[in-house]
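[agent] plan:
  1. take the single chain provided in the ticket
  2. run structure prediction with default settings
  3. attach structure tokens to the ticket
  4. add a short note for the reviewer (M.T.)
[agent] executing step 1
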Amino acid sequence: MSMLVVVTEGVPPRLRGRLAVWLLEVRAGVYVGDVSRRVREMIWQQTEELAEDGNVVMAWATNTESGFDFITYGKNRRMPVEFDGLRLVKFLPESLD
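[agent] step 2 finished; step 3 output follows
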């Protein structure tokens, strides 16, 4: 079991409801819980299926240099990158549309 945090933006209510089955919504769109790897992977699979045009980040405690890992879904200016074995976040320039 490890601590899990999921932050959602612009996702359909059915995904928010599904996340609330497994995790506690501590703020609008912010979910936390202590789940197994299997449950975390199932939650992510459902996230990918139900998030539509929204965006999601999932972070969990793990045995890495930083002590956590994360994965993202959807459009966002923040993109995960690998650098010397560390997972960092790169910011994309703002769109001028």
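[agent] step 4 note for reviewer: The radius of gyration is 14 Å.
[agent] ticket updated
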